[in-house]
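Q: What does the predicted 3D structure of Oxidoreductase look like?
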Amino acid sequence: MSYFSDVERDLVVAARTEIAAGVVALDLVAHNGRDLPAWTPGAHVDVILPSPAGAERVERQYSLCGDPADRSTWRIAVLREDAGRGGSVRLHEEVRVGERVRVRGPRSHFDFAITPGTRYRFVAGGIGITPIRAMAEAAAEAGAEWTLDYAGRGRETMAFVRELSERHPDRVRVHAADEGMRLDVAAVCAEADAATAVYVCGPARLIAAAEAAMPAERQAALHVERFEAKEFGPPVWPGPFQVELALSGETVTVAPGQSVLEAIEEQSPATMVLSSCRRGTCGTCEAPVLEGAVEHRDSVLTPLEQAEDTVMMVCVSRAACPALVLDL
């Protein structure tokens, strides 16, 4: 994680464009015209919205979906979700060109890089196209072999669908439900041989289908990003446990039903831990693990990363033993 992932900055909305039904793209620039920090396909930023006095501020995560080579502008695309937690509605209704928006990042847990000899299969569902778009364009620019399967309710609701289809007609397959074009995720995964990497972003059911279709020996080639938290059963260590904070020398007790993050905020308020979603989907609260076994309950780390037990998301993950030591 880079230094810039922790930095908050006020950016100016340079353009606001409706790119699909219910989807608005915001182009964000520095107020002084300087370049913004570099980012790679798959990265996202935290958008921080002001709240009434005494209330917690609202933070939401949005993938960067512009051109990584354009350091002057960060572009995000916001799907309006009237049944959501309110952040997208505010961005649609309250943010206008010329106004400032507070942003933190960029950071990424959906890393993408071109590897010689690798083929790429991209799968996007709905607004899940936002991180995938930059990946597909990077693959095209590098001359890599790639395809994109893009599913949605209808073309009018699918951001970037016309642009991508026209730019890459032989690479992009559109699966619009209102046209009877259903996406067969299992078939896409079946095409993934040992030289193929599969990147999937979209609704939980799409990701679950991809995970179920990918053979066990090929799971490492499957890369996913979730917008919704996974569901888990009761914790494997149901009782309280201790967390030693190695940098401060303090120890906090995490009660049943309490997160590690909440325990630190309550018992060691001087310990700074950034957080945002508090659902295990954004990766902001990642903390290094020095000792102990972790029950990973996040939706960010891959199974291989979780098995290493070197980091944990303290907003949701817990100890699988009586005590942990974190590098905090």
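A (community wiki): The structure tokens above were generated from the sequence. Residues 129-142 form the longest helix (14 residues). The chain has three domains: 3-107, 119-226, 241-326.
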